[in-house]
Amino acid sequence: MAVYRLCVTTGSYLKAGTLDNIYATLVGTCGESPKQKLDRVGRDFASGSVQKYKVRCEAELGEILLLRLHKERFAFFCKDPWYCSRICVTAPDGSAVHFPCYQWIDGYCTVELRPGTARTICQDSLPLLLDHRKRELRARQECYRWKIFAPGFPRMVDVSSFQEMESDKKFALTKTVPCAEQDDNSGNRYLPGFPMKIDIPSLLHMEPNIRYSATKTASLIFNALPASFGMKIRGLLDRKGSWKRLDDIRNIFWCHKTFTSEYVTEHWCEDSFFGYQYLNGVNPVMLHCLSSLPSKLPVTNDMVAPLLGPGTCLQTELERGHIFLADYWILAEAPVHCINSLQQYVTAPLCLLWLNPQGVLLPLAIQLSQTPGPESPIFLPTDCELDWLLAKTWVRNSEFLVHENNTHFLCTHLLCEAFSMATLRQLPLCHPVYKLLLPHTRYTLQVNTIARATLLNPDGLVDKVTSIGRQGLIYLMSTGLAHFTYTDFCLPDSIRARGVLTIPNYHYRDDGLKIWAAIERFVSEIVSYYYPSDASVQQDCELQAWVGEIFAQAFLGRESSGFPSRLCTPGELVKYLTAIIFNCSAQHAAVNSGQHDFGAWMPNAPSSMRQPPPQTKGDTTMKSYLDTLPEVNTTCRNLLLFWLVSQEPKDQRPLGTYPDEHFTEEAPRQSIAAFQNCLAQISKDIRERNQSLALPYAYLDPPLIENSVSI
Ligand SMILES: CCCCC/C=C\C/C=C\C=C\[C@@H](C/C=C\CCCC(=O)O)OO
Ligand SMILES: [Fe+2]
User: Fold this and answer.
1) What is the CB < 6 Å shell around ligand 1?
2) Which residues pair with residue 28 across a beta bridge?
3) Which of 88, 203, 236, 301 is least surrounded, with the fewest CB atoms within 10 Å of its CB?
């Protein structure tokens, strides 16, 4: 008789425990144990419990290859989901094998787990294990299916398949009809008290392993309700018409003021703060260094000489690499729509900036369209104050649109969703890249599903608050994806290509590069441990299918994007994984967490403009300025969203924390510890630097960065 001891850990999430019966079977190289019920005196599998059981076999099983967990009905009780964290099996000779699980097991089924030692497909030779990999992936591909949101968009998760799974329907693996056109919109409706439509059905059937935890859901609701209730009872969410005075905007939030939101309210008019936001605001990716002016922006030396001062000229400053451009060309053909039944406007400005000898970035000239001419005057800091303020506000509106739709939603949320999907569909649980990436995909499918149901749906929040609405968003994101490159995706390359390596006080760049380097060091240790040669990368067909699927589904197979469609060396793999982890964590934090800070003072980030851009100078009054900014209800609806998404709902996991121990070998665990030490040092340096700054930059302080896109 051989006795194997099992130590079973149930997760400590709310309702993680189960009343269902759990049985176990051990499969080894020398045979299989009988299926045995895991049953002790008292309550089994309570939330947070660690319980020990014995599995008896007639003879020893040899090397343990698989652990089968069977979940079956208990008496007359109905199905009770179980979150199993891990199981440790101790063999009769005292050796221990760890089986990471970290998943919800729903319904009555059998789950087969492999020991925690990570293995690529090339490292497996036993037919049993090769077959297990295949079956695991087939099941995942059946569960997580791609769907097309709109032509030109990265593909996304098909949530209706979870409902279909529940009702055991049969269907094709990928739906090819764009869902923006095919959906039955009957579930998309107004709920009492809500200012926009909500697509309820898509929220109901989330697969438990990608669903927000109860804590996170409760925290999101808890953040939303008091803020929306406060605005509702003051009538702000329903009040149409212009703001009567700029100062009234200060009173939208009385208890959600932050140090930065107050700073913005004080300094928003200053040119130096306008320039600062290109470096350390929520959209720090726009600037390109110019060596000559583009013909579409005919700024002359005479125009800017008063600002440049004596001893220099535009040509000299161009030669010195001190002239930068923010070009909003992408907005030129964006459709516009109506809000509160009134036509809204959009434009595609060009904003020229100068890095002065004191190291301060200042706006030099603004042209509010891509076509120069008498109807598109070039606005200058020397113009009258309100003309210049209005021109800058138009640029801030363009910033809002490009930032929210492309820098934020497309390049972090949607791309990270595609990475999550490919990881779930193409890599088995035992694959080292799965173990590495899974923590960086946590809650991404869920938050994007919520965003699609509340923001991107017809008459959802995007239609209610932005000048371009949902159709404009679809245009902007598909055009953005068609131009997005691997260079843009990799921070060091993007900094180099944009020529912004030496601008002083560019904290996003400095902190971002340190975090990039820390991730790169960590990833290269993991990769070199599992991929000793070029051949080991090239022959890993699961890895190649994963990268191929991302290329096809996220980047729509566009070769000119520069994204790889296959990986040939460990170095290429390191860069690719580093970029994915950086964008899922740090990049999202940099472009997400400051939305309330920089947007609460609405004129700094207006979501829509109600008058056409000025074609002449000297006509702007405070009244025409206020009549151009969004109406009261539009402002408040947008600020509600900014408030909500700037705070990560509870149940956070900061960058580099891996409480789910997917890696069980010593080497990767040491690499994780070294990564954590490195991030702690970066945090210390950032906090020290911030002490001497008038406006601290903390968005890339590692403890404040989430591992994944989860809000
Ligand atoms: C006012 C109530 C809205 C409720 C929505 C609840 C949560 C939001 C869920 C996800 C948000 C994700 C992203 C959205 C970002 C950009 C979308 C485009 C917005 C725009 O163009 O206005 O934020 O992290
Ligand atoms: Fe976000």
Assistant:
1) 404-405, 408-409, 413, 447, 450-451, 454-455, 461-462, 465-466, 473, 592, 607, 640-641, 644-645, 711
2) 31, 64
3) 301
Give 487 Cα–ligand 1 centroid separation in angstroms. 27
Q: Work out which ligand 1 atom sits closest to the CA atom of 641.
A: 1
164 C-beta neighbours (distance < 10 Å), count: 15
How remote is the C-alpha of 388 from its chain's centroid? 35
Distance 278 CA to ligand 1 centre (A): 22
C-alpha 333 – ligand 2 centre gap (Å): 26
CA distance 345 to 369: 12
Are 354 and 379 within 8 A, CB to CB?
A: no
Q: What is the pLDDT of residues 615-644, one digit of tens each?
A: 999 999 999 999 999 999 999 999 999 999
The DSSP symbol for 234 reads T
Residue 267 annotated as part of some ligand binding site:
no
Q: Give the number of whichever ligand sits closest to the CA of residue 642.
A: 1
Query: In the prediction, which pLDDT does 175 show?
Result: 42
Kindly report, residue by residue over 313-350, the tens digit of the pLDDT.
999 999 999 999 999 999 999 999 999 999 999 999 99
Mean pLDDT of the chain: 95
For a mutational test of ligand 1's pocket, the pick from 256, 587, 645, i.e. the residue with the most ligand atoms closer than 8 A to its C-beta, is 645
> How remote is the C-alpha of 693 from its chain's centroid?
28
CB 17 within 8 Å of CB 85: no
349 Cβ neighbours under 8 A, 6+ residues apart: 328, 366, 367, 368, 369, 391, 394, 395, 398
Residue type, 244: K
C-alpha 255 to ligand 2 mean position (Å): 22
**Annotated binding-site residue? 39:** yes
Give pLDDT, residue 76.
Answer: 87
User: Is the distance from CB of 482 to CB of 337 less than 8 angstroms?
Assistant: no
Residue 195 confidence (pLDDT) above 70: yes
Number of the ligand 1 atom closest to the C-alpha atom of 447: 10
Nearest ligand, measured from the Cα of 397: 1
Distance 654 CA to ligand 2 centre (A): 15
How far, in Å, is the centroid of ligand 2 from the Cα of 588?
Answer: 6
Distances in Å between the Cα of 125 and the Cα atoms of 99, 138, 170, 359, 566 are 20, 19, 33, 61, 24
CA distances from 681 to 339, 505, 521, 705 (A): 48, 20, 14, 15
248 annotated as belonging to a binding site for a ligand: no
Ligand nearest to the CA of 448: 1
DSSP designation for 163: H
pTM: predicted TM-score of the whole model, two decimal places? 0.96
CA angle 8, 38, 64 (to 5 degrees): 65
Strand 64-72 to 109-113 pairing = antiparallel
The answer to whether residues 361 and 353 touch, using CB atoms and an 8 Å cutoff, is yes
Domains of the chain, start order: 2-115 (2.60.60.20)
Of the given ranges (251-255, 298-302, 557-561, 659-663), which has the lowest mean pLDDT?
Answer: 251-255
**pLDDT of 167 above 80:** no
The answer on whether 183 is annotated among ligand-binding residues is no
**DSSP H or E segment with residue 36:** strand 36-37
Q: Which residue has its alpha carbon closest to ligand 1 atom 3?
A: 641
- Find residue 50's DSSP bridge partners: 9
pLDDT-derived band at 183 (thresholds 50, 70, 90) equals: low
Structural contact between residues 393 and 628, judged by C-beta atoms closer than 8 angstroms: yes
Q: What is the pLDDT of residues 27-55, one digit of tens each?
A: 999 999 999 999 999 999 999 999 999 99
CB 18, CB 80: distance < 8 Å: yes
pLDDT of 109 > 70? The answer is yes
pLDDT digit string (tens) for 567-579? 999 999 999 999 9
